## 1
Amino acid sequence: MSQILNEKLGKLTKDEQHLWALRHTAEHILHQAVKDLYPSILLAMGPATDEGFYFDFDHSPKGKTPVKISDEDLPRIEKRMQEIIDANLPMIREEVAPDEAAKLFAGNPYKMEWIDEIKKRGEKVTIYWTGEPHQPGSMVDLCGGPHVKSTGEVRAFKLLSVAGAYWHGSEKNKMLTRIYGTCFPSKKELDEHLHNLEEAKKRDHRKLGKELGLFVFSDLVGAGLPLLTPKGATIRRILERFIVDEELRRGYQHVVTPPLAKVDLYRTSGHYPYYKDTMYPPMKVDDDELILRPMTCPHHFMLYKSQSRSYRDLPVRFAEISPQFRYEKSGELTGLMRVRMFTLTDAHIITPPKKAKAEVLAVLDLIDYINKCFGLVKGTDYRYRLSLGDRKDNKKYYKDDAAWDKAESVLREVLVESNAPFFEAPNEAAFYGPKIDVQMKNVSGKEETAFTVQYDFVMPKRFDLTYIDSDGKEKQPVVVHRASMGALERTMAFLIEHYAGAFPLWLAPIQAVVIPIAERHNDGAQMIVDALKAAGIRVESDTRSEPMQAKVRDHTLQKVPYLAIIGDREIENKTVSVRKRGMRELQALALSDFIAQLVHEIEQKTN
RNA sequence: GCCUCCAUAGCUCAAUGGCAGAGCGACGGUUUUGUAAACCGCUGACGUCAGUCCGAUUCUGACUGGGGGCUCCA
């Protein structure tokens, strides 16, 4: 642990190291303040982070009356922190023998657990004093640092929120109280950071989804079950058509299979024991048990098995816009990001092992193409995660060490060869094999898997998938599972946030609004609408009895890409006055030129 | 699921242990307008179920839904 930290610190610039030390110190000031205000509380642990710092407290130690800390208490804690800062206490490092440390932290099981570990390694314990060592009123904590010299150097900090967090991150352990805060070298930088957080909230897909009328939720329908409005459904339809067309172009065959099946299908696949908790309970129908599908793979395997397959037919690439159902825990649901019924742009590529690598490469190429169309930049907007298994964990992962080694090295080679920025994540694989995940950050900086490519050597065995090779012998293929455009719900959430609701023309649910200035221009406006519709443009006219300024304002707020104003002048000159989103100056265009411009822009998929 | 906070009209927000108020929207009318909000009128809400109280939108609890986290995940 400390080794990893040291490596990380070694790579930081001087300024970054200073920031790290400041945040670490702020964290000590926090727990000192909390201990002052709530003497019965126990310190667990807390780090400095890229965004600030946090600390976990046990608010209800054994034998003590539990205390409750809520957001309302933060100002009080901040005030106490400021007093500690004003006192300008020194931060003093000391190395002590584990047994001596044990005396200092007697009665704190969290610290003792840590000290025991250090003792087992035969190392000394590094502690930090806030104030003079071993003096009454001085605070001490187990900590490797680094810190600034004294608390007075912390000039700009803010506590942000209170949260629950499990000790060691395991839901089997006790839930502790976590306090998040942040800290910067100057007030100005802190304010800037807080301002950025506010700005980020404005592009939250849940807020924009409501403001732009893209989707809603209903208490009666249920949590995690979004209803797409006509506008939201339009975006979804564009995405579907786009991905289906692109996949057909790239040699996929699109199929349709039912979103429910017998439970036995999932027993055969082996999904059932792994996914039971997130699957909806079986429905008894006559003598069968049916289940809403949590994934599509077995359906596609049944299609594959419906006839004998020759090596000449392989790879077979079955794709589907596939609704699937997972009972996510209530606390995990978030807008369109995480829902209980989602639509995966799914496919299963069944291929001889030796062609698997080329197939994975082709999938990465497709993903890069899709992201390019979305204006997403590799490395900044998304990065790859090589999600690996754990040979020791036979419960979570199918046991076949040689197959895992092979599969992981194939995926790693693909990433290296395609020059993709990636990082490796142990213990993130599917139970049937390793994956390459395309990771994107949402508006609050949380990283989620957007798209995925998985190498599967287990299902072919389970389902006895075979093909006849050129030597006439029956062989076993491997399966590449992939979601090229991920789950449409989640992808929409990412796109809403990425574009801040100002969709490029090809994705905009309403591409243009024609605005007649007065009632006598309504017919003229309708002619323009008809012409644009004939060219395939999603257009509406706004014939409300409102001033033109009001109409311009409304559609500007709705982030409509193009407004076309029609009045006496335009009708006389046979033009339209075009106002493009985000542009001040207007363009007077012949109708045919306007249409040509729109059609071109849609084809280019540019902004 | 767990910790914590929240829930007032279609939306954004007030107020209150004793008959809930505004702006926008919707609706009806007047107006027919030159690039980010015309005018008049009218409509409309205390999430659900219990409890405390003479009386609950307000206090308590449960449920439902939502936010911030944890766990989990496409």
## 2
Amino acid sequence: MTKEKLQHFLQRTGFITAAQAEEIAGQFRPRVLARHGMLLEAGKVSDDYFFLDQGFMRAFAYDPQGNDTTTAFYAAGQLVFEVASFFNRTPSREYIQALTDCQGWSIRYQELNGLFHARPEFREFGRAMLVRGYAGLKDRMLAMITEQAAVRYEALLRAQPEILQHAPLKNVASYLGVTDSSLSRIRKGSSKK
Amino acid sequence: MTKEKLQHFLQRTGFITAAQAEEIAGQFRPRVLARHGMLLEAGKVSDDYFFLDQGFMRAFAYDPQGNDTTTAFYAAGQLVFEVASFFNRTPSREYIQALTDCQGWSIRYQELNGLFHARPEFREFGRAMLVRGYAGLKDRMLAMITEQAAVRYEALLRAQPEILQHAPLKNVASYLGVTDSSLSRIRKGSSKK
DNA sequence: GGCCGTTCTTGTCATTTGACAAGCAATAGC
DNA sequence: GCTATTGCTTGTCAAATGACAAGAACGGCC
């Protein structure tokens, strides 16, 4: 695994040049996760700012009734971390799990902060990542409030079909905010078209 | 209106001393909004990083069906801004509206960036605000997926009863992700207890 | 090959919620 | 003071979704 994808990802936001990207990427260390392995577990403080190079992951939490609820999916080429635990140094309430064998590049909180301090351009990148995640979540929230489950499913199918290829449907169901039975019926209805 | 609340707010995160808070607060300008006035309108680029000193506000968006959907409420003592539009300098999809007469302190994007650049402690504050908003939204999303509307309503009643005193119920309803009729029924059921 | 656990689908029934319309109360504007 | 608007509640009916259980499909493992 080379750092090519990571460097490319750093540059793509526009704040970071190729030379800078190479230096910044130099601070990241490889990290491998077997299928079903955990990048983060509830109760622990997240210490990985993780760029997923290959594989597929999800984040989930247990609600008060003990249901496993998927909160996010991550495809290769995305940043994976739990905002609140990582930046506030507080115990996580979420798990982050490899759905397939995964490899990527990781940096610790201390090191990330050092980079933020030393490199204004990387700081801008960091803020852009926060904003991107925040804005994406707002979109999802709005859809959750205003769209029916069937519409949300079809939007997901269009926007991120790879999720359906890697994640079990019950995880997709909790991500969409419905039961696995309902999702099954939604799929049945939508395949008729 | 004095800058006392603003200074106190800046300090409360722990990154900023009293002396620094006074200097930073010096960069903010007063801003007044009459009831129903707009701090931000869809289509415009947000240029207010706004601390609400007195009053009550809400953010909302129109969904594809044209429904007015409340995405957030803001009580006095909170920061009010639309993340994506403000930081990405892109047109907003949301409106931010005064529900009562409001006053507060505002700073523009350029000035904020200048402060971030000049003051590492304020930068930390800024990141903490982003993380707080992001994490809060995640909690809300999880509740939206896993809790019934009646439970969400009662949680809101416990955590932010002031919302019910200032916002019309139809706004609360769309915030909770239900119709105004449903909320009315939920309230009826919940008052029986 | 055969067993077992997991995933997915399907059926049945109850509950929640939405859509729509009507009615009443409060409020603002004339 | 009167009217128009808005906000809130309620009734009725239909649609969406959940809860629960059973069974089919599939893969891993001995």
